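Next comes a single protein record:
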Amino acid sequence: MRNGVLVINKPMGPTSHDVVNQIRRSWPGKVGHTGTLDPQATGVLPLMLGRATRLMRFFSHSDKVYEAQIRLGRTTDTYDAQGQVTAEGVVPDQNREQCLRLLSEFEGTVQQLPPMYSAVKVGGRRLYKEARAGREVLRAPREVTFYSIQLLQQQPDCWKLHVHCSSGTYLRTLAHDIGQKLGCGAHLEGLTRLSSGQFELDQAVSPTDSTDIWLQEMIPLEELLPDLPRLDLTQEEANRITHGNAVLFNRGKPAHYRLFYLGLVYAIGRMEKGYLQPFVVLRTELVSGQDKQHG
C-alpha cells in the first residue's frame, strides 16, 4: 500500500517543507501536504502520499484544533517567541470570569489581519520578505471563524488555550490581539496542533520512524473523507468511471460521493442532473482481488 495519508507529529524546529523533504528521501512516489505549521509549532501535519495527493483540495480547508500558550506582557514583531521584543507592559489582574469574558469576544466569525511575518502574498510578494526588509505592507483582513476558545490554564502572565478554528486562522494573531485588548501586549509562546480535519495527534508518527512503521500507520484511501457519502458501483459503472466517463445514475442527490467497487475507492464523483461525473479519479483500471493488497 503506497497511497494514503501519513499523519506526522511535526517536531519543533524544522519547517513543514523540511519534513516533506525528509519523507521524500525515504518514500517512493509523490508526497504533499495540505497546510503548513510554523517552524516552532508542533503536532499534526498530514502528508498525502501517492494517489492521495489528488485529494489535497478536499483537505486544505479543514478545521483545526490547537493547544496554544500565550505569554502576556510582551509584544514581538513576529507575534511569537522567536521575534524581537517591540513593547512590554504591565499585565492587569484578571480573574477567571474576566478571562473567559474576554476570550468570548473572539469567538465566532471575525476579521483577522495576517501578521507581517507570514507567507501571505500581497502584490506578488510574501509578507515575511517585506517584513525582513523592514517594510510594513497594507494588507486586507481575512474572515476566519473561532468555533470555541477554552481556557485550560491561567497564570498571572501566561494563558493556555484550547482553540477550535477554521483553516487559515493565525493563532499568533489571536495572541497579539488578546494582548492589545488587555493593554499589556502578548505573544504566542507555544503551539501544538491537535487535529486537522479527520486527522488526530494520536494517529501521528515521527518523521524519523522507519518506512515499515509509516506503512503500518498510513491511513488508506478507503478511510479518507468519511463525511462524503459512499456509492458502490457495478463493474460496468466502475470501468466507465476509471476512464473518466460519466454514468447515468439516478440513485443519489446532487453532491460529492466516494465511489467504491469491490471494497476499493476508485474516484470522487459529483452527481449532476442524473449523471455521476468523475471529479477526481484515483484508479485508472479495475484492480483484481490478488492486487488489492498493494493498494
The mean pLDDT is 91. The domain at 230-294 is CATH 2.30.130.10 (Archaeosine Trna-guanine Transglycosylase; Chain: A, domain 4).
